[in-house]
Specification:
Oligomer: single chain
Distance between the termini: 27 Å
Largest sheet: 7 strands, mixed
Shape: globular
Structural class: alpha/beta
Order of helices and strands: EEEEHEHHEHHEEEEEEHEE
CATH topology: Metallo-beta-lactamase, Chain A
CATH superfamily: Ribonuclease Z/Hydroxyacylglutathione hydrolase-like
Radius of gyration: 16 Å
Bound molecules: zinc ion
Length: 209
Amino acid sequence: MGGMESIYPAVFRLQHSAGSNGYAILDGDRVAIVDPGLVGGRRGLLRELRQAGLLARVTDVLVTHSDADHVGAAPAVQAATGARVWLGRADAEVLEGTRRPATRFRRLLARRATDAFAGGLELLEGGEEPFPGVTALGTPGHTPGHMAFVFEDVVFAGDAVRGSDNGLRLMPRFLTSDQDQAQASLELIQEVGARWLCPGHGAVRELHT
Ligand SMILES: [Zn+2]
Protein backbone atom coordinates (compact mmCIF):
# COMPACT_ATOMS: atom_id res chain seq x y z
CA MET A 1 0.00 0.00 0.00
CA GLY A 2 2.91 2.31 -0.82
CA GLY A 3 3.96 4.46 2.09
CA MET A 4 0.56 4.56 3.71
CA GLU A 5 0.47 3.89 7.40
CA SER A 6 -1.85 1.07 8.43
CA ILE A 7 -3.92 1.99 11.45
CA TYR A 8 -6.23 -0.97 11.55
CA PRO A 9 -6.96 -3.76 9.07
CA ALA A 10 -8.40 -2.01 6.00
CA VAL A 11 -7.75 1.50 7.38
CA PHE A 12 -4.79 3.60 6.25
CA ARG A 13 -3.63 7.10 6.98
CA LEU A 14 -2.79 9.11 3.87
CA GLN A 15 0.66 10.68 3.83
CA HIS A 16 0.21 13.36 1.15
CA SER A 17 -3.15 15.00 1.74
CA ALA A 18 -2.69 18.51 3.13
CA GLY A 19 -4.12 20.55 5.99
CA SER A 20 -5.88 17.80 7.92
CA ASN A 21 -5.59 14.06 8.42
CA GLY A 22 -6.83 12.00 5.49
CA TYR A 23 -7.65 8.30 5.67
CA ALA A 24 -8.52 5.46 3.31
CA ILE A 25 -10.93 2.61 4.13
CA LEU A 26 -10.79 -0.52 1.95
CA ASP A 27 -13.68 -2.87 1.33
CA GLY A 28 -12.87 -5.52 -1.27
CA ASP A 29 -12.44 -3.65 -4.56
CA ARG A 30 -13.83 -0.41 -3.16
CA VAL A 31 -12.07 2.43 -1.40
CA ALA A 32 -13.47 5.34 0.61
CA ILE A 33 -11.44 8.44 1.38
CA VAL A 34 -12.15 10.26 4.63
CA ASP A 35 -11.38 14.02 4.51
CA PRO A 36 -9.22 14.56 1.39
CA GLY A 37 -7.85 17.86 2.76
CA LEU A 38 -6.96 21.24 1.28
CA VAL A 39 -7.41 21.92 -2.41
CA GLY A 40 -3.69 22.73 -2.60
CA GLY A 41 -2.87 19.13 -1.65
CA ARG A 42 -4.99 17.53 -4.36
CA ARG A 43 -2.15 16.64 -6.73
CA GLY A 44 -0.10 14.94 -4.01
CA LEU A 45 -3.17 13.09 -2.80
CA LEU A 46 -4.13 11.85 -6.27
CA ARG A 47 -0.54 10.77 -6.94
CA GLU A 48 -0.40 8.88 -3.65
CA LEU A 49 -3.65 7.08 -4.40
CA ARG A 50 -2.53 6.25 -7.94
CA GLN A 51 0.84 4.90 -6.79
CA ALA A 52 -0.86 2.76 -4.15
CA GLY A 53 -3.13 1.31 -6.83
CA LEU A 54 -6.20 2.74 -5.12
CA LEU A 55 -7.27 5.67 -7.27
CA ALA A 56 -9.37 3.69 -9.74
CA ARG A 57 -11.09 1.96 -6.82
CA VAL A 58 -12.28 5.10 -5.00
CA THR A 59 -16.07 5.04 -4.96
CA ASP A 60 -16.81 7.30 -2.01
CA VAL A 61 -15.44 10.37 -0.26
CA LEU A 62 -16.64 10.82 3.31
CA VAL A 63 -16.29 14.42 4.48
CA THR A 64 -16.63 15.17 8.19
CA HIS A 65 -17.46 18.84 7.68
CA SER A 66 -17.32 21.81 5.34
CA ASP A 67 -14.09 23.49 6.50
CA ALA A 68 -11.69 23.96 3.57
CA ASP A 69 -8.88 22.00 5.23
CA HIS A 70 -11.10 18.89 5.12
CA VAL A 71 -13.29 19.25 2.01
CA GLY A 72 -11.10 21.34 -0.32
CA ALA A 73 -9.65 18.50 -2.40
CA ALA A 74 -12.94 16.58 -2.59
CA PRO A 75 -14.07 18.08 -5.94
CA ALA A 76 -10.74 17.00 -7.51
CA VAL A 77 -11.11 13.45 -6.17
CA GLN A 78 -14.66 13.34 -7.48
CA ALA A 79 -13.56 14.65 -10.89
CA ALA A 80 -10.77 12.04 -11.09
CA THR A 81 -12.80 9.05 -9.94
CA GLY A 82 -16.53 9.77 -10.23
CA ALA A 83 -16.84 9.06 -6.51
CA ARG A 84 -19.88 10.02 -4.48
CA VAL A 85 -19.09 12.76 -1.96
CA TRP A 86 -20.93 12.50 1.36
CA LEU A 87 -21.43 15.48 3.67
CA GLY A 88 -23.81 16.49 6.44
CA ARG A 89 -26.80 18.37 5.05
CA ALA A 90 -26.28 21.55 7.05
CA ASP A 91 -22.64 21.75 5.99
CA ALA A 92 -23.55 21.11 2.36
CA GLU A 93 -25.86 24.12 2.59
CA VAL A 94 -22.92 26.21 3.79
CA LEU A 95 -20.83 25.08 0.80
CA GLU A 96 -23.69 25.75 -1.58
CA GLY A 97 -24.16 29.23 -0.11
CA THR A 98 -27.71 28.71 1.11
CA ARG A 99 -26.73 28.70 4.81
CA ARG A 100 -24.58 31.28 6.52
CA PRO A 101 -21.29 29.93 7.93
CA ALA A 102 -21.72 29.43 11.65
CA THR A 103 -18.89 31.51 13.08
CA ARG A 104 -17.56 34.97 12.27
CA PHE A 105 -14.14 33.49 11.55
CA ARG A 106 -15.66 31.21 8.91
CA ARG A 107 -17.65 34.04 7.36
CA LEU A 108 -14.32 35.76 6.69
CA LEU A 109 -12.90 32.55 5.18
CA ALA A 110 -16.02 32.00 3.08
CA ARG A 111 -14.77 34.59 0.62
CA ARG A 112 -12.56 31.81 -0.71
CA ALA A 113 -15.20 29.41 -1.99
CA THR A 114 -14.63 25.69 -2.42
CA ASP A 115 -14.64 24.43 -6.01
CA ALA A 116 -18.01 23.22 -7.26
CA PHE A 117 -18.97 19.55 -7.17
CA ALA A 118 -19.82 18.67 -10.75
CA GLY A 119 -21.06 15.28 -9.56
CA GLY A 120 -23.17 16.74 -6.76
CA LEU A 121 -23.21 15.87 -3.08
CA GLU A 122 -24.82 13.02 -1.14
CA LEU A 123 -26.42 14.47 1.97
CA LEU A 124 -26.17 12.89 5.40
CA GLU A 125 -28.44 13.40 8.40
CA GLY A 126 -26.72 10.79 10.56
CA GLY A 127 -27.45 7.06 10.80
CA GLU A 128 -26.75 6.29 7.14
CA GLU A 129 -24.26 3.69 5.84
CA PRO A 130 -22.43 5.67 3.14
CA PHE A 131 -19.86 2.89 2.57
CA PRO A 132 -20.00 -0.80 3.52
CA GLY A 133 -19.52 -1.12 7.27
CA VAL A 134 -19.36 2.64 7.87
CA THR A 135 -22.03 4.47 9.88
CA ALA A 136 -22.43 8.25 9.79
CA LEU A 137 -22.75 9.71 13.28
CA GLY A 138 -24.27 13.18 13.55
CA THR A 139 -21.84 15.16 15.72
CA PRO A 140 -22.79 18.84 15.37
CA GLY A 141 -21.09 21.62 17.27
CA HIS A 142 -17.82 22.36 15.50
CA THR A 143 -20.08 22.91 12.49
CA PRO A 144 -23.88 22.43 12.30
CA GLY A 145 -23.65 19.45 9.96
CA HIS A 146 -20.51 17.79 11.30
CA MET A 147 -20.39 13.98 10.91
CA ALA A 148 -18.14 11.40 12.50
CA PHE A 149 -17.79 8.01 10.77
CA VAL A 150 -17.67 4.73 12.64
CA PHE A 151 -16.06 1.67 11.01
CA GLU A 152 -15.74 -1.43 13.18
CA ASP A 153 -13.40 -0.43 16.04
CA VAL A 154 -12.41 2.91 14.51
CA VAL A 155 -14.07 6.31 14.79
CA PHE A 156 -13.12 9.09 12.38
CA ALA A 157 -13.90 12.14 14.46
CA GLY A 158 -13.02 15.06 12.18
CA ASP A 159 -12.87 18.22 14.27
CA ALA A 160 -15.42 17.10 16.87
CA VAL A 161 -12.44 16.40 19.13
CA ARG A 162 -9.00 17.78 19.74
CA GLY A 163 -6.55 15.34 21.22
CA SER A 164 -4.38 16.50 24.08
CA ASP A 165 -2.25 14.92 26.76
CA ASN A 166 -5.14 15.30 29.19
CA GLY A 167 -7.62 13.38 27.10
CA LEU A 168 -10.08 14.67 24.54
CA ARG A 169 -11.08 18.30 24.37
CA LEU A 170 -13.09 20.52 22.06
CA MET A 171 -11.68 22.69 19.31
CA PRO A 172 -11.31 26.40 20.22
CA ARG A 173 -14.49 28.41 20.66
CA PHE A 174 -13.87 30.67 17.67
CA LEU A 175 -14.08 27.51 15.55
CA THR A 176 -17.18 26.16 17.29
CA SER A 177 -20.65 26.91 16.00
CA ASP A 178 -22.48 25.62 19.12
CA GLN A 179 -20.65 24.88 22.34
CA ASP A 180 -23.38 22.73 23.98
CA GLN A 181 -23.80 20.60 20.88
CA ALA A 182 -20.03 20.25 20.61
CA GLN A 183 -19.80 18.97 24.18
CA ALA A 184 -22.62 16.46 23.60
CA SER A 185 -20.94 15.28 20.39
CA LEU A 186 -17.62 14.79 22.18
CA GLU A 187 -19.38 12.55 24.70
CA LEU A 188 -21.22 10.67 21.95
CA ILE A 189 -17.93 9.85 20.21
CA GLN A 190 -16.54 8.41 23.43
CA GLU A 191 -19.73 6.41 24.04
CA VAL A 192 -19.49 4.69 20.66
CA GLY A 193 -16.95 2.43 22.33
CA ALA A 194 -14.51 2.31 19.42
CA ARG A 195 -10.93 1.59 20.34
CA TRP A 196 -9.18 3.78 17.78
CA LEU A 197 -9.81 7.49 17.39
CA CYS A 198 -8.74 8.99 14.05
CA PRO A 199 -8.99 12.76 14.50
CA GLY A 200 -8.91 15.50 11.89
CA HIS A 201 -5.67 16.84 13.31
CA GLY A 202 -2.97 15.29 15.48
CA ALA A 203 -2.11 11.71 16.24
CA VAL A 204 -4.32 8.64 16.04
CA ARG A 205 -5.01 7.54 19.61
CA GLU A 206 -6.29 4.58 21.53
CA LEU A 207 -9.44 5.31 23.52
CA HIS A 208 -10.07 2.00 25.27
CA THR A 209 -7.88 -0.97 26.02
ZN1 LIG B 1 -12.86 22.19 11.11
